Amino acid sequence: MSTYISEQSEWKEEWKNFVLDEFKCSCCSEVKVDAAMIDLLQEARNELGPLSITSAYRCPSHNASVSSTGEAGPHTTGHALDIAVKNSQHRKQLIDWFTTKVTGLGVAKSFIHIDNLTEEQGFDMRPNAWKY
Q1: What is the pLDDT of residues 71-91, one digit of tens each?
Q2: Which of 21, 32, 22 lies closest to 59 in space, CA to CA?
Q3: Residues near 99 by Cβ (< 8 Å), separated by ≥ 6?
Q4: Is the N-terminal amide bond of 127 cis, ω within 30° of 0?
Q5: Band (125; pLDDT cuts 50, 70, 90)
Q6: CA distance linking residue 17 with residue 2, whole number of Å
Q7: Residues paired with 129 in a beta bridge
Q8: pLDDT score, position 100
Q9: Taking 90 as the threshold, does the pLDDT of residue 1 lie above it?
Q10: Contacts of 50 (CB under 8 A, 6+ apart)
Q11: Which fold has domain 4-131?
């Protein structure tokens, strides 16, 4: 069962390299992020160095306006986010690190998408990897 973080009071001390604002919808400022995703990010940060979140939770209307996945895409679940890529070496480092730890991995020039979605959540194409 997922534990969702939506308020600052729910933020854990061990997530020291991230702030709640990084996970807010840029449209409405709502937050819904799976605590396990933040745990995974902090683990990655501890091993790889700084990571920049470019997109995390998106409300359904915002997701529909920016993604072909519509109002029910991965980012609307709180189980998906995008991480900025600095260069091709950084991209490979991120891909190598996350490949065995997530169920969804999307690769673009400027970011990677990760998610921990499952068939039970309605994402029957998991595990999956793709490019943008």
Answers
A1: 999 999 999 999 999 999 999
A2: 32
A3: 105, 129
A4: yes
A5: confident
A6: 22
A7: 105
A8: 97
A9: no
A10: 17
A11: Muramoyl-pentapeptide Carboxypeptidase; domain 2 (3.30.1380)
